[in-house]
Amino acid sequence: MARRRIIAGNWKMNMTPSEAVKLVAELKDLVVNDNVDVVYCVPAIDIVPVVEAVKGTNVNVGAENFYIEDKGAFTGEISAPMLVDAGVKYVIMGHSERRDIFGEDDILINAKVKKAFAAGLTPILCCGESLALRKAGTYKEWIERQITWDLSGVTADQVKNLVIAYEPIWAIGTGETATADQAEEVCAFIRELIAKLYDGATAEAVRIQYGGSMNASNAAELLSKPNIDGGLIGGASLKPDFGKIVNA
Ligand code: 3PY
């Protein structure tokens, strides 16, 4: 069965609640596509107004982060049940900005994957290598290690519903994009890895996005590749260009 495409915006730390509602209205007619899952992953403070603003449209809302406990003394954090109650469907984890700036490791990311599934959220699990690893030629080993750790104890049925985003760090916020062939090589490798860790049916079902400076001009070529099922979009998700990517 063909995998359904998924185009998700990662708004990062952009958009005040009022700017967020304006952006949703601006994009409303541009992101309509019955063949694509469209997701806005938004800052925590924007979740409630954005869930309200997308009501009646084809757009789902995602979070950019959460903590693995349900409640308690975790100042500043939000939980999976809070996200679910607010109407969130997806949540990003393992993004290189959280790994590098906030020190999140694969043990925590693995716990997040399991917690998200247990709560009924779809994880968008990011992985990707630094420029040094790309240059050293060891990027596949790195990605294999990340995914193997991050999915430890996660079942095949869960992985069938997982979204993996391959985001080479050297292509994030740099304006550099992996070429479509470079992106396809790693996305195909990730699918083979899922077949090795699970089985062929799970590998066929898991959706793999490319992320890292995907924009309106490179999206069509990236999305034409057989193992790239969608995109996790940074800066271009904050502009009308996002609609062009959804329809690329
Ligand atoms: C980017 O495109 O910059 C991203 O990090 C998407 O997650």
From TrEMBL:
<keyword id="KW-0963">Cytoplasm</keyword>
<dbReference type="InterPro" id="IPR013785">
    <property type="entry name" value="Aldolase_TIM"/>
</dbReference>
<comment type="pathway">
    <text>Carbohydrate degradation; glycolysis; D-glyceraldehyde 3-phosphate from glycerone phosphate: step 1/1.</text>
</comment>
<dbReference type="Pfam" id="PF00121">
    <property type="entry name" value="TIM"/>
</dbReference>
<protein>
    <recommendedName>
        <fullName>Triosephosphate isomerase</fullName>
        <ecNumber>5.3.1.1</ecNumber>
    </recommendedName>
</protein>
<feature type="binding site">
    <location>
        <begin position="10"/>
        <end position="12"/>
    </location>
    <ligand>
        <name>substrate</name>
    </ligand>
</feature>
<dbReference type="GO" id="GO:0019563">
    <property type="term" value="P:glycerol catabolic process"/>
</dbReference>
<feature type="active site" description="Proton acceptor">
    <location>
        <position position="167"/>
    </location>
</feature>
<dbReference type="InterPro" id="IPR000652">
    <property type="entry name" value="Triosephosphate_isomerase"/>
</dbReference>
<keyword id="KW-0312">Gluconeogenesis</keyword>
<comment type="subunit">
    <text>Homodimer.</text>
</comment>
<feature type="active site" description="Electrophile">
    <location>
        <position position="95"/>
    </location>
</feature>
<dbReference type="GO" id="GO:0006096">
    <property type="term" value="P:glycolytic process"/>
</dbReference>
<feature type="binding site">
    <location>
        <position position="173"/>
    </location>
    <ligand>
        <name>substrate</name>
    </ligand>
</feature>
<comment type="pathway">
    <text>Carbohydrate biosynthesis; gluconeogenesis.</text>
</comment>
<dbReference type="InterPro" id="IPR020861">
    <property type="entry name" value="Triosephosphate_isomerase_AS"/>
</dbReference>
<dbReference type="GO" id="GO:0046166">
    <property type="term" value="P:glyceraldehyde-3-phosphate biosynthetic process"/>
</dbReference>
<keyword id="KW-0324">Glycolysis</keyword>
<comment type="function">
    <text>Involved in the gluconeogenesis. Catalyzes stereospecifically the conversion of dihydroxyacetone phosphate (DHAP) to D-glyceraldehyde-3-phosphate (G3P).</text>
</comment>
<dbReference type="GO" id="GO:0005829">
    <property type="term" value="C:cytosol"/>
</dbReference>
<dbReference type="GO" id="GO:0004807">
    <property type="term" value="F:triose-phosphate isomerase activity"/>
</dbReference>
<dbReference type="InterPro" id="IPR022896">
    <property type="entry name" value="TrioseP_Isoase_bac/euk"/>
</dbReference>
<feature type="binding site">
    <location>
        <begin position="234"/>
        <end position="235"/>
    </location>
    <ligand>
        <name>substrate</name>
    </ligand>
</feature>
<feature type="binding site">
    <location>
        <position position="213"/>
    </location>
    <ligand>
        <name>substrate</name>
    </ligand>
</feature>
<keyword id="KW-0413">Isomerase</keyword>
<comment type="similarity">
    <text>Belongs to the triosephosphate isomerase family.</text>
</comment>
<dbReference type="GO" id="GO:0006094">
    <property type="term" value="P:gluconeogenesis"/>
</dbReference>
<dbReference type="InterPro" id="IPR035990">
    <property type="entry name" value="TIM_sf"/>
</dbReference>
